[in-house]
Structure formats: C-alpha cells, structure tokens
Amino acid sequence: MSTHSRYCRHACSIVGCVLVFAGAHAAPAAPAHGSVTLTPASVTASGIQVAPLAESRYARQIRAIATVLDPQPLLALAAQLQTARAALDAANAQAHAATAEAKRATALHRDGDNTSLREAQAAAAAAAAARAKQVAAAADARAERATARAQWGAVLAGEAESGSRSFGALADGSAALLAVALPPGSAAPAGRTIHIHEENGGVLTATLIGPSSRADPVVQGPTY
User: Fold this and answer.
1) Residue 59 above 80 pLDDT?
2) What is the pTM of this model?
3) What is the spatial distance between Cα 206 and Cα 69, in angstroms, rounded to a whole number?
C-alpha cells in the first residue's frame, strides 16, 4: 500500500472514531471495533494535534432596542431634589435649635432666673413655628422624591438626590443615559456590566442602573 493510500485511510478513519495512541514500547493490541490505533510517528505524519479545551464563559445575547435619553430633565430634577433636601436639613436644624431654646427659656422662667413668662411663651411659639416648617419641608422632599421615582425609577432617583458623580458626566456630555427595551418575556440581565453591540459592529460597555419605570412604545417588554 502506498504512503498516500495509507494517509487517506488514516484521515478517513479519524472521523467518527476513537483514536487510541500506542506508546513506543507498548505491546500491540487488537483494535476495538470502530477504532484505529496510531503510533506517535503516524500522528505526527498525519498532522494530528490534541489539545485540552480552553474554558470559556457563555454570554447570553438578547436583541433589544437602546434609546439615548435627553439628560436635561433628569439633571433638573436632581437639582430640585437636592434643593428640597437642603431645605429639609435647614428646617431640621432650625427646629432643633428652637426647641432647645424653648426648653431653656421655660426652665429659666420656672426657676425665676430673669426670664419672663412672655419670653418663655415667645420661645415656645418660635419652636412651634420651626417644627411646622420642618413638617412642610419634609412633605416637599417626599413629594419631590416620589416624582423622581415615578419618572426615573428608585435607583436613579436615589443617585439624583445624593448627587452622584455620574451626573457630572451626564452634564458635560462625557456619558450618556440609555433606555434599553428587551423583548417580552426576557429575563433580567445578569450583573451590572452589559455590552451593547451596535449595528455597525461597534461595542459599547454600559453600567446597568436598574429597572426603568418607563415603557417603550414599540417593544412591550421590560425596560432598563
């Protein structure tokens, strides 16, 4: 049998068969049914290479619609949230100071230490007014927070109120805010980092903020 025909027999027998490699000094064994035994020299001559499979992680891909959102309404809402929060902090401090002063004036009047009843009553009235402002400021802050959550979701509303650094990137245009609508029945993305494949072949790396309270008018699926 020629070298060419022996090579063809080896090559054709590889498909769908189990390869059993014989050692240099191993005793020849009868080949099992449906298998072929190759010596190391035959393996080298045939160009066969054996290597372990490299471990890899399967990344689930979903075809979705990503829309770039105008950040100005969110930035304006963030300013309102922070203003309401500052007003509440000021009202809390004022109410605390006024209440302490009213207690001090009442104690001095009771002990007869040069504090008239009128002064004690005025301090108590000032404390009551400060507490009323505190209640109003807390109500305003809750209303602003509820509006933000309804429009942008709890996670984004919380970052807007706390003054997250990412809002500075949105303001100067170095970052963009995307709304990603998934097909109906899609599971939530795993992890906080997602990769968006553009139609032109580009890949964008984005940070998942959380579920969005907005629904896409075209794709009636979960939105993030």
Assistant:
1) no
2) 0.60
3) 14
